[in-house]
Design brief:
Elements: H1 7-23, H2 31-38, H3 44-79, H4 91-104, H5 110-133, H6 141-165, H7 167-178, H8 186-213, H9 217-222, H10 227-249, H11 255-267, H12 271-295, H13 304-322
Helix pairs in contact: 1-3, 1-12, 2-3, 3-8, 3-10, 3-11, 3-12, 4-5, 4-6, 4-7, 4-10, 5-10, 6-7, 8-10, 11-12, 12-13
GO molecular function: transmembrane transporter activity
Transmembrane segments: 6-26, 55-75, 87-107, 119-138, 144-165, 186-210, 230-263, 275-296, 302-320
Membrane topology: Multi-pass membrane protein
Length: 328
C-alpha cells in the first residue's frame, strides 16, 4: 500500500494530546509542578498526581480509544454502513447491560467484569448482524441507526430499572451509563490485555479479506475468501474490542463513528488504511475528551460520555444531512 501522508502527523498529534493529559487537570497542580514530576523531581504530591492518577488514566484512554476506533471501522465495513457504530447500534449498550446484571448479582472482580462485558457486546453484535439481514434495514443507513437506537434505549432502560431494584449496586451501575476513565487502576487495564491481544491477531487476519468483502460477497469468493468466516472473525473482534473498552470506560457513544469517518476522509476507503489511521486517532479523541472533561468545569469533572457525545453528535448530523461520506 502507498504510505499515507497523514499517518505520522496523527501520531504526533496523539503525543501532544497525551502530554497535555499529564500536565493539565481539575486539581490545583500547576504546570511547572507537573513538568517537574514528569522529570522525576518535584514534590511527592505532584509525582503522585501525575504518575499514580493521570498516567494510568492516560494508558486506559489510549487502549479505550484504540479499541473503539478499530471496532467502529470494522463494524462499518462489515455492514457497509458509514453510520454503523458500537454505541449507536446497541453493542456498547449490550455490554453495559451485561455488566449491570453481573454487578446486580454481586460480581466485582475486574476479570469477571471484562468477560461479562465482552459477552454482552457479542450479543449486541449478533443483533446488529440480524438487523442488516432484515429487508430494507441493512441497505438504509438511517433505518439501521434507528433500529440500533431502539435497541440501545431498551437495554439502557432495563439497566436503569436494575438501579431501582438494588440501591447498593446503583452507584456502580451508574458508571456504565455515564462513562469515565477516572480512578481506574493498572490491574483493570491488565485484565483486558489478553483479549485485546487476541482481537489484534483477529483484526490482522481479517483486514485484507475484509477489504475484498467490502466489494461484495461474490468478489470475495472469487478472490478465494470465505465471507462467512470473515464475518464471524469481525463479529468476534468487535465484541472483544467493545467489551474491553466498555469494561474500562463504560458505554461511550460516537467514538466508533467519528474516528473511522475521519480516518476514511484522510486515508481513503481501503479498510487497511482506515485501521492504521484509527490507531492514533481513536486514542486522540478519548484523551482529548477526557482532558476537556477535567478542565471545562474545574475543580469538578464532567462525565467522559458527555464530552464524546458533544464531539460526536454534530459529526453524525453532518453525515446524515450532507451525505458527504467516503465510499465504503
Amino acid at each position: 500500500m502507498k504510505p499515507n501522508p497523514y499517518y505520522w502527523p496523527a501520531w504526533i498529534l496523539l503525543g501532544l494530546v497525551a502530554l497535555a493529559s499529564l500536565l493539565f487537570g481539575a486539581g490545583t497542580l500547576e504546570l511547572r509542578q507537573a513538568l517537574a514530576a514528569l522529570a522525576g523531581q518535584g514534590t511527592e504530591e505532584a509525582r503522585f498526581v501525575v504518575l499514580e492518577l493521570r498516567l494510568p488514566r492516560l494508558a486506559i484512554g489510549l487502549v479505550t480509544g484504540l479499541a473503539l476506533g478499530v471496532a467502529g471501522a470494522l463494524l462499518q465495513t462489515l455492514t457497509r454502513n458509514p453510520l454503523a457504530e458500537p454505541g449507536l447500534l446497541g453493542v456498547s449498550a449490550g455490554s453495559a447491560f451485561a455488566v449491570s446484571l453481573a454487578i446486580l448479582a454481586g460480581a466485582s472482580t475486574a476479570t469477571l467484569t471484562t468477560l461479562v462485558s465482552q459477552a454482552g457486546a457479542l450479543a449486541g453484535c449478533g443483533l446488529v448482524i440480524l438487523a442488516t439481514r432484515i429487508q430494507g434495514v441493512g441497505q438504509d443507513p438511517v433505518r439501521l441507526v434507528l433500529a440500533g437506537a431502539t435497541l440501545s434505549a431498551l437495554l439502557m432502560s432495563l439497566t436503569s430499572l436494575m438501579m431501582l431494584i438494588d440501591q447498593r449496586a446503583a452507584d456502580e451501575i451508574r458508571f456504565w451509563i455515564t462513562g469515565s476513565i477516572a480512578g481506574k487502576s493498572w490491574d483493570q487495564l491488565t485484565a483486558t490485555l489478553p483479549t485485546l491481544v487476541m482481537s489484534g491477531f483477529i483484526v490482522t487476519a481479517v483486514a485484507k479479506p475484509l477489504a475484498s468483502l467490502a466489494l461484495g460477497e461474490r468478489v470475495a469468493r472469487g478472490l478465494g475468501h470465505r465471507p462467512g468466516l470473515i464475518q464471524l472473525g469481525v463479529v468476534i473482534a468487535v465484541a472483544l474490542l467493545t467489551g474491553s473498552a466498555t469494561a474500562l470506560a463504560g458505554p461511550l457513544m460516537f467514538v466508533g463513528l467519528v474516528v473511522p469517518f475521519v480516518a476514511r476522509a484522510l486515508g481513503g476507503a481501503d479498510i487497511r488504511k482506515t485501521l492504521w489511521l484509527c490507531l492514533p486517532l481513536g486514542p486522540t479523541m478519548i484523551i482529548a475528551a477526557d482532558t476537556l472533561s477535567r478542565l471545562l468545569v474545574a475543580p469538578s469533572e464532567m462525565p467522559l460520555g458527555v464530552i464524546t457525545a458533544l464531539l460526536g453528535a454534530p459529526v453524525l448530523l453532518v453525515i446524515i444531512r450532507t451525505r458527504r461520506i467516503p465510499t465504503l
